[in-house]
Design brief:
Layout (H helix, E strand, L loop, with lengths): L1 E6 L6 H13 L4 E6 L16 E3 L4 H4 L5 H22 L4 E5 H10 L5 E6 L3 H6 L12 H5 L4 E4 L2 H11 L6 E3 L6 H8 L6 H8 L3 E6 L8 H14 L3 E6 L5 H10 L6 E5 L4 H5 L4 E4 L8 H8 L4 E4 L4 H5 L11 E2 L4 E3 L14 H15 L1 H17 L2 H12 L7
Helix pairs in contact: 3-4, 10-15
Length: 408
């Protein structure tokens, strides 16, 4: 089978990592090519050199001949989709799989006789709610263009339910394929030497380190973590906080840490080629996202047997709360993690903690104090490593590409 995978780039976050891994793994059985919308070849996630990679060309002189933003976007997407259509014909593509809004839109615009699959990686109705924060662009016409796909692959049951209830996508077109992680590969990377004297000095000066990893954006909620951690650190001065990643809020978060008086106890380490070597040297992982699809970084924390505290965003309960017993309103202890209410934008201030941030603070205190709880989560994480392994999840991708039913 000839398979094309379309995404904006192989730099950055979870969707890019999944796409790169699928390109590599599926090439063992199928002829795979990749289409990258951004003309960049400095990938964070490498793929085998023998796999054909097409970079789309931008023709700004053509796009700017119109009379405004609408004309520019119309010309841009027509040009990009025409380029993809040509590549599909040249490569005799049987199935085209795309990721994220831009890739999905272009995949459908360039649809021919091939099977078109689009992958929804986020809880889109919540993402739309927070659109005005500058944290992402939602395609206009989201509902209408998606219906033209042969299959809409959702990264979690929560995301699938959102697509059905809020965007009225036909159930027959929806399927769930969750993220996976190669625990052995992550553990191998985590053992690599770490040549970072500044971080190692920070680590040695704190008995207990919380860690968060992700883009520094409103979506990821790092400011909520800073506020909760300030209260934790006041009670337990031997605690520290490591934040991995970069993004638009870098300066704002640095300023917040200073205003909270914790700048010496928070390490903003930036984006790392091997974040797992840093995470391995920490004691507990904290996620405070306002919305997600099905968090890759939580699976990575599980692979490193890191105890987890997570906000109740899409996909988290089906990962950590088997009973799915309803929305989290306080601190909930499950077999795999401590769950807290999902943060929200109104808490984005430094003047006192919101009720939800207080629950995050309580969970962090609990994780710090309870050695038995941390041991339990470290042991139970091995169950999740097996459940979300490539051996379990990859056959689902192969099935949907081949037009077979997806059965977990």
């Amino acid at each position: 089978m000839n398979i094309m995978i379309i995404i904006h780039s192989l730099r950055g976050g979870g969707a890019e990592k999944v796409a790169a891994d699928l390109i590599t793994r599926m090439s063992a059985k199928h002829r795979v090519c990749a289409v990258l919308v951004e003309n960049k070849d400095n990938h964070d996630y490498p793929i085998p050199a023998e796999i054909p990679v097409y970079y789309l060309r931008r023709h700004e002189d053509i796009y700017r001949r119109g009379n405004g933003t609408r004309d520019y976007l119309t010309a841009y997407y027509k040009d990009m989709s025409d380029q993809i259509w040509t590549i599909k014909q040249r490569e005799h593509i049987d199935c085209a799989l795309s990721f994220l809004e831009q890739g999905n839109y272009l995949n459908i615009l360039s649809k021919g006789k091939e099977r078109v699959l689009i992958s929804i990686r986020n809880h889109m109705s919540v993402k739309e709610m927070y659109r005005r924060t500058g944290d992402g662009f939602i395609m206009k016409g989201h509902m209408s263009y998606q219906r033209k796909a042969d299959k809409i692959i959702c990264v979690s049951e929560d995301v699938m339910e959102d697509q059905y209830r809020n965007f009225h996508m036909p159930k027959r077109k929806l399927a769930v394929i969750r993220n996976y992680t190669d625990a052995q590969e992550i553990q191998k990377k985590a053992e690599e030497p770490l040549d970072d004297e500044a971080f190692m000095a920070f680590r040695s000066s704190h008995r207990f380190l919380f860690v968060n990893s992700g883009r520094l954006t409103v979506q990821k909620g790092q400011k909520h973590i800073l506020k909760a951690f300030a209260a934790v650190h006041e009670q337990y001065p031997d605690t520290g906080l490591l934040i991995l990643g970069d993004g638009d809020l870098q300066a704002s978060l640095n300023k917040a840490a200073a205003l909270l008086g914790i700048e010496k106890d928070v390490c903003f380490a930036g984006r790392k080629q091997n974040p797992h070597a840093y995470m391995k040297r920490c004691d507990a992982f904290v996620l405070a996202s306002l919305y997600e699809g099905f968090s890759n970084v939580l699976l990575e924390a599980n692979a490193l047997t890191l105890p987890v505290i997570s906000s109740d965003c899409a996909g988290v309960r089906e990962l950590y709360d088997a009973e799915r017993t309803g929305r989290i309103t306080t601190v909930r202890e499950t077999d795999y993690a401590l769950l807290v209410p999902c943060m929200d934008i109104i808490g984005d201030t430094l003047t006192g903690m919101t009720e939800k941030e207080k629950y995050l603070y309580q969970a962090m205190i609990r994780m710090y104090e309870d050695d038995d709880l941390r041991r339990k989560y470290a042991e139970n994480s091995r169950i999740l490593q097996e459940k979300y392994s490539p051996e379990v999840i990859l056959p689902l991708w192969e099935a949907v590409c081949e037009g077979r039913a997806v059965h977990e």
